[in-house]
What does this fold into?
Amino acid sequence: MATLPNIIRRVTGPKPRSFQVISNVPSLRRLRRDAMLKDESVGFVPTMGALHPGHLALIRQAVQENTHVYVSIYVNPTQFGVSEDFDSYPNTLNDDLEQLRSLTARFWNDDSVGQITAVFTPTTSHMYPGLKPSSEIDGQGSFVTITPLSSVLEGASRPVFFRGVATVCMKLFNIVQPDNVYFGQKDVQQTYVIRRMVDDFHLNTRVRVVPTVRDIDGLAKSSRNVYLGRRRRKVATVLVRALRAVRAAFLDAHTERDVLLGAAHKVFEDEMQRQEALPPHTRCMFEVDYLSLVDPLRFTELENVEPKHGAILSGAIKMLPIEKPQEDEDLGTGGRNLPVRLIDNLRLEQITSMLQRTRSSSSDTP
It folds into this structure.
C-alpha cells in the first residue's frame, strides 16, 4: 500500500461528481478491491457523524494525499459507558451527507487532489455480527484492548471508551484496508491508542494526525458542543484558557510540573469564583476532571519538561447542567440541559523552538 503523502494516482476515467453511500460490508470491499487493482490509494476518515469543521479538515487533508477518500458515519455503542450519552448523541445523517456533497463539489474540477468516493454508513448488526455489543466493563464480546495507554486520563474517567474505539477502528480498518487513516489532534490520547494498535497488530495503514480546528474564541470544535447552549458555551472556553496559561508559563522558561499546571489551576479557580459569585439564574458551573502533562513519545506523566523533547498538555472538564434556566433560554440541542464533557490539549513541543530562541536572545543580552 502507498505510504507517502502527496503522491496521488489519478482516478482512471472521469472524476465522479458525487460519492456512493454504502451501508454493507461486501459492497464497500468490492469498491476497495477495484481501487486496489488500479493501484489507486484510499484515505479513510472514521467519524460518528454530527460533522463539523474539524471533520472537514480531516477530509481536506485526506484528498490532498489519496486518490479516493472514504468517510464512515457510525455511532459506535461500545465506546459509551452504560451511563453516558449514547442515546442522546446527535443523529444528523442527512445534514452530514449534504455537507459532504458540498465538499465533494469543490474537489470535482481540481485535478491536483483526490475525491470523496464513498460514505460508509453501517448498522450495528453489520459492525457487530456476533454478540450484541456490551458497554459493561466486564461485558462479553470480541474486543481490542490497548493497555496501559487506554487505562489513564480519558480511560480512567471512561473505562470502556478506548476498548470501544480500538475495537471499532480495528473492524473498520479491516473492512476498508486504507492506505492512510485520519484523526484529529484534539483527541490526542486516541491517536496514541490507534498508533499503538496499528503498530502492535502490524496493520498496513499509516496514521495521519491533523491539527485541532477551533472557534475564534479558542474552543475546540466538537460534536458535543451543540449540547452547551449559549450560557455554558461562553464559560466552556475556560479549558483552552487554562491550557494557554500553561503555554505562557512554558514560554517564560518554566518547566516544572507544579508551576506549569499551577498556571492552569489558577485559571480554573478564578473562573469558578466568578461563577460562584453570580446568582443561579445567570451562572454556569463546571468541574475539572483532569490535567495531564505527558512525554510525547511514551505518554507517561512528567515532573519536569525537557525543552528539546517538549510535552503534551491535556485536560478535561465537565460543564454542569444549568441550575435555573431562564425562560426560553438556549440550553443546547434538544433542550435537555445535559452535563457536557469537553477535552482539549496543546503540544508544548510545537513551541520549543520559540523557547530556545527566547533563551538565546536573553543570553546575548548584556
Q: What stands out?
A: DSSP finds eleven helices and nine strands in the chain. The longest strand covers residues 286-294. The two ends are 56 Å apart (CA to CA).
